[in-house]
Write a structure and sequence with these properties.
Blueprint lengths: L18 E6 L1 H4 L3 E5 L26 H4 L3 E5 L1 H6 L4 E2 L1 H11 L7 E5 L9 H5 L11 E2 L2
Parallel strand pairs: 3-5, 4-6
Antiparallel strand pairs: 1-2
Length: 141
């Protein structure tokens, strides 16, 4: 679930691209270091509640127990191949439970879309139409 972070990786369009600067090199300075400037939600990450709710907690306020949970993965790779705008819905979750049993309330549910295979090619990842609108899978409201 992780990818290398570099200036060419896809990013949310409201952010600026990563800025990368070499500060020291082994040849000249006998030490190698780079400096990166990027938005906090760049690349693969976990969203803290505070990112979406002013009264939400930040990561330093979450316990490790809250971050390590039973995992359920709902696979919809085939549906996404047919519809790049596929939205995982409540109906999908209910169908999953019908087949695999009830999802416990203290668990993490992941949506496997297969979209990460496009990560190395930004144009494929963004999948924009002629008007510049991206067509990518996600979660329904």
């Amino acid at each position: 679930m992780t990818h290398l972070v570099h200036p060419e990786i896809p990013y949310f369009p409201a952010f600026k691209p990563i800025e990368e600067q070499t500060l020291f090199t082994v040849a000249a300075d006998r030490f190698y270091a780079k400096e990166y400037t990027l938005a906090s939600q760049y690349g693969t990450h976990i969203d803290a509640p505070v990112y979406f709710w002013e009264e939400g907690r930040s990561f330093d306020e979450l316990s490790l127990k809250e971050l390590v949970l039973p995992l359920y993965v709902i696979h919809k790779e085939e549906q996404v191949k047919q519809n790049h705008d596929y939205r995982l819905s409540v109906e999908d979750i209910l169908a999953f439970e019908q087949k695999h049993g009830k999802i416990s309330p203290d668990s993490f549910v992941a949506f496997a879309s297969g979209w990460s295979a496009r990560f190395g090619e930004p144009a494929d990842f963004y999948n924009q139409d002629e008007d510049g609108n991206s067509h990518t899978p996600g979660w329904s409201l």
